[in-house]
Structure formats: C-alpha cells, structure tokens
Write a structure and sequence with these properties.
Layout (H helix, E strand, L loop, with lengths): L10 E10 L10 E7 L4 H11 L8 E4 L11 E3 H5 L15 H4 L6 E6 L5 E12 L8 E6 L11 H12 L1
Antiparallel strand pairs: 1-2, 1-6, 2-7, 3-4, 3-5, 5-6
C-alpha cells in the first residue's frame, strides 16, 4: 500500500505558543499548546492564539521570522496587507495564507506580534503534525500553562486590593 502525499488539509498542526517579552524571553512565561487545522488561515490562527490567552482581537497583527526584531524580518505576514492600510507592506496578508503553507517543518518558530502600539509578543513554534482527528474544523487549546498577562489592566484592581487588606486587619 502506498502512502499518498498530503496537501495539509487532512492534518492538524500542533503549536506551542508562549507569551514572551520584546526581548524574546520565554522561560517561565505562560504558554498554550494549540491544535489547529492545516487549512486554517493565519487570520483564524491569530484568533485562536488570542482566544487561548483571553485577548480580544481588536488590533492589527503580523507573523514574523525575526523573533526579537520584527521590523527586520525577511519572512512575514501582515493584516495590513489584507485591508490596504499599508500599501507599501512587503509581506503577504493573513486572510488567505494558510498555516500549512507557512509552517512547513517541525520546530519552525515565528513571532506573532499583536497590537503594534503595545507590542504583545507571542513565540509560535510548530511542535508536531498529526492526522486530523477531532480538530478537523476548529482550533483547540490542548494544554494551558501559567496565567496569561492581561491584555488590559483592570482599573479597579488597585482599589480592590486596598479594600480587601482592610478587611483582614
């Protein structure tokens, strides 16, 4: 029996996505393992990443091969290219580019940069490829380690800490 070549549509891509800092540090940082269909677009993949860290998809983003200096990347995919906000963008868009076409080998890493103002950095690494199984049409968080840093600071957080400390005394 001969094995047939796959086009990636019948595969699930397994990613370790780590919330890092601008220096690319990931040790001890929260991470998620995501199972994503190979035919997902990078746009849908970005949504899965953000959902896994409880972020709203309310800012522009891109995927870049330079993990610490995204502006010096040679490979990249940007939302700006899809919506004509940056006609000079040198990179393809994320709405038609599929995961299987970008992450072509195990251990490939890219920076997922979300919100160019606040610059949220997530290191994305392909850690495995499996038969589709149950993840045929949707992404799934397979493993969650550590509490994600909040996208927006809670304005009442300082006040609630003060209120709680006076109750204990």
């Amino acid at each position: 029996m001969t094995k047939r070549a796959t086009d990636g549509n019948d595969l699930t891509f397994m990613f370790k996505v780590t919330q890092s800092n601008y220096m690319g540090n990931v040790r001890g940082r929260p991470y998620r393992v995501l199972a994503v269909p190979g035919d997902f677009t990078l746009y849908k993949f970005a949504d899965a990443i953000l959902s896994g860290f409880e972020f709203d998809q309310d800012h522009a983003f891109g995927f870049y091969d330079n993990l610490t200096r995204w502006s010096q990347s040679r490979e990249g995919y940007e939302l700006f290219s899809d919506d004509d906000r940056d006609p000079l963008s040198e990179f393809p868009g994320v709405k038609k580019t599929q995961v299987k076409d970008v992450f072509t080998h195990i251990k490939k890493k890219m920076l997922f940069l979300f919100d160019y103002g606040d610059e949220w950095h997530f290191r994305v690494e392909l850690i495995g490829v499996e038969p589709v199984g149950e993840h045929k049409t949707h992404a799934k968080v397979v493993k969650s380690v550590g509490e994600a840093l909040p996208q927006y600071a809670d304005p009442d957080e300082d006040d609630s800490d003060e209120d709680n400390s006076s109750d204990d005394e």
